[in-house]
Amino acid sequence: MLEPNVARLADDPRLTSLAQTELGGKAVPFRATLFEKSGKANWLVVWHQDTALAIRHRFDAADWGPWSQKAGVLYSHSPAWALSRVVALRVHLDASTSDNGPLRVVPDSHTLGVLTDEEIRSVVNQRGYSECFVSTGGILMMRPLLIHASSKAIAGAPRRVLHIEYSDSLILAPDTELAVT
Q1: Would you tell me which CATH number, out of the four given (1.10.3210.10, 2.60.40.1940, 3.40.640.10, 2.60.120.620), belongs to the domain 4-177?
Q2: Which end of the chain is more exposed for a tag (fewer CB within 10 A), N or C?
Q3: E strand or H helix at 176, and its extent?
């Protein structure tokens, strides 16, 4: 279950309207993650796609897995059709600047499907990337399959982002339900 204050923000009509427009209808928040880069917590994020979804119950299907568990929540690497039903809104609690490890993205790469690490590196080398600078209170929308990364911060100013994921439904298919985390 989402923390109550985060749930209120995730259900805010301004955010749900953005997610609904992108998803083409209903938008149900199901997962929220707070990212905080600062002088105390500073890390490099390599180029990747977000392919794992939190799932309520394990099942056997050829295009799902491998499965893992984090903090009591079951996750599965998921097929492109399921990930295409998800959008994330990144609410910036601090401005992202060139000095505090901003998000880097390969524009339109979410349309390429689920890629291997080698394919991701090749796409980055061929297409290049853009850095995303967002002001405090700004919102960046992204799809899970968008190739993205971030560098370490080189300044002490924090970069906090609340990453809220929405789907058009918690039920993706018979016996395939997203977990709310």
Answers
A1: 2.60.120.620
A2: N
A3: strand 176-177
